[in-house]
Amino acid sequence: MSTSLIIIYKSLYKSFGPQHWWPARTKFEIIVGAILTQQTTWRNVEKAIRNLRKNRLLTIENLANAPLRKIEELVRPAGYYREKAKCLKNIATYLLKHYQGKLKELFKKDTKSLREELLNLRGIGKETADSILLYAGGKRIFVIDAYTKRIFLRLGLLPASDYDKIRMFFEDNLPRDVKIYEEFHALLVKLGKEFCKRKPLCSSCPLFKDELCRYSHCERSEAIS
DNA sequence: ACCCAGGTGGCCC
DNA sequence: GGGCCACATGGG
């Protein structure tokens, strides 16, 4: 590997500063947000979260006991609202039943088995599971999202297309530091939102300015996910 | 009127 | 393992 990941991280951090992820008041709210933000803008997730908060449904017990139709109505702004409502009620019910609604008990488990447990829940895939593990559980797991794949493909640094291989690439080539994982993923999303859409603005991209990205990479702007 | 967003699961080959 | 498809609202 010619370019060290930590150098890219430092370049982004210097340009954008800390991103303060995950934006949430509680650990359970992080879990709810992780599900709601699937293929959805954060702006719309915020509306759904506000609706849930207004109705006091941001606790495990209240959400588990709420009528599915009510949850659907409240999370509608986040899209896929039937699927997401079902998933939210299901995970709340699961946490209530198996952990007495205590996330502290959940996150006592080791990372590997906890990850498998989350992946067995309907509507929780790898990215959502890893977001929960990293940001709510404080586990040392790197989150791979569509922007991260796209950015590293353009940089010519994508080691594979398989999710877990990409994740291991990051985990093997960064300091074993949860804070860096949290910040780096947030910074990559920030970069992706601003510079890796269909019309890249390469001249103002921090990676380009720091000579970590060649202009020609950005010119290949076909959507990749 | 398009296109896409901090994905996931099912089905096909 | 890859290639489609449904799932759905809201902003550019």
How would you describe the overall organization of this protein?
This protein is mostly helical and 225 residues long. It folds into 2 domains: 5-19 and 144-219, Helix-hairpin-Helix base-excision DNA repair enzymes (C-terminal) (Endonuclease Iii, domain 2, Orthogonal Bundle); 27-136, Hypothetical protein, domain 2 (Endonuclease III, domain 1, Orthogonal Bundle), CATH 1.10.340.30. The chain has helices spanning 5-16, 27-36, 42-54, 60-65, 68-75, 81-99, 103-106, 111-119, 126-136, 146-154, 163-172, 178-195, 206-209, 215-219. It is globular, with a radius of gyration of 18 Å. The structure holds a DNA duplex (13 and 12 nucleotides).
Work out the helicity level: 55-70%
Fold-level CATH name of the largest domain: Endonuclease III, domain 1
Annotated CATH architecture of the largest domain: Orthogonal Bundle
CATH superfamily of the largest domain: Hypothetical protein, domain 2
Text of the CATH class of the largest domain:
Mainly Alpha
Write down the overall mean pLDDT: 92
Based on Cα principal axes, name the global outline.
Answer: globular
Count, helices: 14
Write down the Rg.
18 Å
Total domains: 2
Q: Calculate the terminal CA-CA distance, rounded to whole Å.
A: 22 Å
Low-confidence stretches: 219-225
Q: Give the number of DSSP strands.
A: 0
Q: How is the biggest beta sheet arranged?
A: none
Content of β-strand: under 5%
Structural class label: mainly alpha
